[in-house]
Amino acid sequence: MSQKTVIHTDLAPAAIGPYSQAVAAPAGKMVFLSGQIGLNPSTGELVSDNVEDQVRQAFSNLTEVIKAAGGSLESIIKLTLFVTDLKNFGIVNAVMAELIPEPFPARSTVEVSGLPKGALFEVEAVIVA
């Protein structure tokens, strides 16, 4: 797979975290992944009430779906993050910076009033595999 291309301009605000202003996707199969929350795949229950644990599990679940689609974390061109409390954004950002390789995908973060099963975090992605 050819490398995704990061698009950047100094005429718009620089990224303030592990994401890019925009990403041009390489040629390939575009896959739209549904949101993943911090569910343990074996039990179908949240891994814990701790936001960092849920974020790590959600990204683990997302990674497995990406692999099943024939991609890898490098294949992500767009992430959408959903949090129930923006006060947890620093935790989410730190975990994402640790797990997602550069060049970073484009990203949006949205605070929502609730998520399935009382989750604190959800992540969805678009990949090119």
UniProtKB/TrEMBL annotation:
The Gene Ontology terms for molecular function here are: deaminase activity
Q: Which CDD domains match?
A: YjgF_YER057c_UK114_family
What is this protein called in UniProt?
A: RidA family protein
Cellular component terms (Gene Ontology): cytosol
Q: Which NCBIfam families match?
A: Rid family detoxifying hydrolase
InterPro entries (alphabetical): RidA, RutC-like_sf, YjgF/YER057c/UK114
Which Pfam family, an example, fits this chain?
Ribonuc_L-PSP
> Family per UniProt?
Belongs to the RutC family.
